[in-house]
Amino acid sequence: xxxxxxxxxxxxxxxxxxxxxxxxxxxxxxxxxxxxxxxxxxxxxxxxxxxxxxxxxxxxxxxxxxxxxxxxxxxxxxxxxxxxxxxxxxxxxxxxxxxxxxxxxxxxxxxxxxxxxxxxxxxxxxxxxxxxxxxxxxxxxxxxxxxxxxxxxxxxxxxxxxxxxxxxxxxxxxxxxxxxxxxxxxxxxxxxxxxxxxxxxxxxxxxxxxxxxxxxxxxxxxxxxxxxxxxxxxxxxxxxxxxxxxxxxxxxxxxxxxxxxxxxxxxxxxxxxxxxxxxxxxxxxxxxxxxxxxxxxxxxxxxxxxxxxxxxxxxxxxxxxxxxxxxxxxxxxxxxxxxxxxxxxxxxxxxxxxxxxxxxxxxxxxxxxxxxxxx
Length: 375
Description:
The chain is an all-beta fold. It has no helices and 25 strands. 0% of the residues lie in helices and 55% in strands.
């Protein structure tokens, strides 16, 4: 999931290469997990996020389909909170990204927010609170974005009046929580500290409402929730990543990511296969082959992204074709100068039979000139 340097007022938060990484907590293989407490924020780590993507359909018209993304980030400014009793002092920013892809109208809409984590603008709960994270909606919208813990799972909502978009969704796990990498220690590079603590709910039953362009639908569908926290996930010579979350029609899920160097070559990769009964298999990069089959160029940023792939995972008996349901699913930030990335809904097909084999989401960062996400 994407994270980046951001601008707070007139001051730009330094990227990870410039930060004193030794002052921040590093992901480690012996991290002691505690659930549900780890659903809440983790002071001392530089970056973390609550990230949900999914596929929805209108209850009264199942052919009317949507993809969506909802993300709240905690971005650390300093490793320890400022030494002040004032509520207006903060060591964190809160950032939100949300998008809706309307597959009927072939329209992709993106919204974002960025605030200091102070009482009027946003913040993070502590274990025992119902609210995990919240932030004031974009200017001109009398609302908040938030994610909360419920008895069934999670609920989250966003609204942006200017973009005429909103959703309020509840999700409940259909399968157990998954730790990515041994004990949830997810390596991103050759250095031991180039890693995150990473877990997911890979299949979530989803229901709620979605609004776009003045219309409102009751919706149902399937979602995927990712949680990561860490402090220095990219090696210095890495420029970005391609990340896949695939929900297969046979009840399995696949998470794959690889990181790219400045030449565009794959630098590092890992994966997870979740069986129908929830058993987990960690995947080394030599256990799958991923080939780009087609690309799309953004007219706004001139970045060129893959939008179709062939995936072979012999150990799982999988030969798949993955295709963007809409090529134009790029998110372009107005808050973080120069930031853009592709976040999109995809269809999965059997490469052999051509039969539909599932749905998923893909995120691609670091495409285009000077677009390395500094995390």
